[in-house]
Amino acid sequence: MARRTRHSLAIRLLAGLAACVSLPCIGEILADDPALTTPAQQKAPNAFAEGSPKPVLNWGKGDGKSYWLTAFDIITFDVLLNRVDRYLIDKDDYNVTLDSFRRNLGGKWVVDNDPFAINQFGHPYQGSMYHGFARSAGLSYWESSAATLLGSLFWEVSGETTPPSINDQFTTGIGGSFLGEPLFRLSSLLLESGTGRPGLLRELAAALISPSTGFNRAAYGSRFDGVFRSRAPAVYTRVQLGVNVHADVSSNIDANRVIGEPAIPQSYKNGEGTADFTVAYGLPGKPDYRYDRPFDYFHLEFTASTKNVIENLITRGLLIGEPYSVGNNVRGVWGLYGSYDYISPQIFRVSTTSGGIGTTNQVWLSDKVALQSTALASLGYGSAGAIRGAGERDYHNGIAPQGLLTSRLILGDRVSFEATLRDYYVGGLASRETSGSENIARAEVAMTARIYNLHGLTLKYTHSRRDARYDDTGNTRQSVGVFSLAYSYLGQTRFGAVDWRPQLGEQAPAP
Fold first, then answer.
1. Quick one: which of 40, 185, 324, 482 could link to 50 by a disulfide (CB 3.0–4.6 Å)?
2. Could you report the per-residue pLDDT of 215-274, keeping only the tens digit for each?
3. What is the CATH number of domain 235-490?
4. Per-domain residue ranges for the chain?
5. pTM assigned to the model
């Protein structure tokens, strides 16, 4: 597919996701809210006001869901996207006919060579649209995941004249669900909060977070007025606006890459502005909260920058798991997680879609000191490579094992310290380039001090390193270390610490 076509798709789809960073109302609505549902909502779990008629949708029982409208939404979305691209961008790649459909349906699948940002961000976000159509039409998570896979398949064989792509099917069909479910949950949480029916501003904000959810709510009248119930999870949110104040870069790659011209070393833009949104949903420890639905716990991070638009987009969610406790000071959950990672620190990039075993927990170390941690070992499919001054197809695909360790030490209601280590390995298995491999590690340490009410300052250091080994091009080494300073708007005064311990005179709750 033409590069300009894919870029146009990414730009259009990026608009909705970027909104979740720019909407301060999200932090306001989720800040220190102990219930997140009104008494009327608790009495009538799928209604907005006491005595109102029962809406059609009920995700718990499966009432009111529609497979037909899900299929109609996804097919219509793909057809319209094809027509727009056909008339405005590229007539050849999108001149779909019955012959091209038959050829793609029975032809060989390939690993395509589209730009990295399109394959690793554009396609997962397109898949999140499919997932949102299905979820907001009442389908369960697993039914919606199947619809996302089928929607991706429909696009690959009938949305383009180019051969269907294996890597696109994986990132759209699976990565799309891992991204789409957190967006659907956040959109629903925004609709659910407050009193009475959502007003226009809340409806618009929810639609910006999950456009396909907003479409179904607007297009079908009261048919999809029901709101997915969160069951009042423990939620931590943080919005940051910052600047990178200093960077150290080491690289043996020629950013120019023009034969006969002097080599140009890679550089990192100091003074880069950033906007970051982080949410942890369903933190362990809240009494009576259950983990019986996929993504009842999830973590999402999104960072936009003035240099490369998307610095990182990371989600992980519990697909199947169980809570556990150790004494009265430890609460956690463990099981199978699904993850989608996209990281691009200006000079190289890595992205993976994976599944693995992990745990998330909180430990009370003293009366006021808590430690929240996640450990995760995963296996998936990913891409990694350098960013050069010329060309964009400088990345490597393959099976990708990865690991994650992250902790946040919370000191009362004033200071928190965070440390995160990620490691990715993209080898030659299931790859077009079987003679090489990539290893990328990223470490972050940060201190956040709450200055007044929900306002704070964050000092962070991030170090990213890439080591690549190829028989034909030799070894490459890149690293970048960045100090940044940010204003932080905190969703909670205690940095998300969940306190399940009994107060004086109360009986300890069951784990």
1. 40
2. 999 998 888 888 999 999 999 999 999 999 988 888 877 655 544 555 566 667 778 899
3. 2.40.160
4. 3-224, 235-490
5. 0.86
